[in-house]
Amino acid sequence: MGNNICVGDVGVSGFNMFRQVQLGLKKVETEFVISAEADCLYPPDYFKFVPEKNDVCYRNSNLYVMPDCRDFFFLKKEGATHSQVIGTRYYLDRLNELFGDAPMWSPEEKNFPRERHGDVDVFNQIEYYKTENPVIQIKTHKGMRYYTHSERIPIPSLPYWGSGKDLRRYYLHGK
C-alpha cells in the first residue's frame, strides 16, 4: 500500500489524525486519495469510484455504523471522513490552510477544525455519491470517540455483508 509513515506516539485527537493525513498527502503521487481506516469494512466497489472534479470532497452516503457489542447497524447518511475520495492537491492545500502556524501535534484538539476555526468539517463543499454496497464503521470503546452521529433505527442485515450477527461472529470473533 505504499510507504509507511510512522509518527510515533503523538496522542489521539482529530488534530493529530489530520496532521498525519497532511504528512501522507505530501508523499502521494496520485491525483486522488481515498480514505480507508482500520475500524471500517470496505466492499470492493468502494475503491472503484472515480471523481469528476479534483477540487471537491466526495463522500459516500452508503455508510453504516455497527455499535459496540451489538449485532445490527445504524445508517449514517451524511457520510464521514473515513469514506471519501478527494483530489490530493485540494486536500493538502485545505489542510495547509487550516493548520497554518499551529503546533505540529495537539492531542487536546479532539474535534479539529472546530476548536481552532469553528468549522464543523474540513471541507466547505461536499458532494455525495453512493456505492452499490455499504461501508461499515465498527465502533468500539477503544476509538477516539465512543459516540457517533447516526440514525438510531436498528438494521439487522446489509447487502453484501449479510446479518450483523454473522458479521460480528466472523470478523470480530473469527467464527
Write out key terms for the chains shown.
four-stranded mixed sheet; 10 strands; single chain; alpha+beta
Question: How many H/I helical runs?
Answer: 4
Radius of gyration: 17 Å
Mean pLDDT: 90
User: Low-confidence spans: pLDDT under 50, at least 5 residues?
Assistant: none
State the helicity in percent bands: 10-25%
Strand percentage lies at 15-25%
**Structural category:** alpha+beta
Distance N to C terminus: 28 Å
Domain count, please report it.
1
Major beta sheet, strand line-up = 1-6-3-7
Q: What is the string of helix and strand elements?
A: HEEEEEEHHEEEEH
For the biggest sheet, the summary is: 4 strands, mixed
Number of strands: 10
Overall geometry: globular
Task: Tell me briefly what this model is.
This protein is an alpha+beta fold.
Explain this structure to me?
Helix content is 22%, strand content 18%. By secondary structure, it is of the alpha+beta class. β4 (63-66) and β5 form a beta hairpin. α1 (14-25) packs across α2. The longest helix has 12 residues, at 14-25. The two termini are 28 Å apart. 24% of the residues are buried.
Describe the secondary structure blueprint for this structure.
Blueprint: H1 14-25, E1 32-34, E2 40-41, E3 57-60, E4 63-66, E5 74-75, E6 84-87, H2 88-99, H3 114-117, E7 126-129, E8 135-138, E9 157-158, E10 162-163, H4 164-173
Parallel strand pairs: 3-7, 4-8
Antiparallel strand pairs: 1-6, 2-8, 3-6, 4-5, 9-10
Helix pairs in contact: 1-2
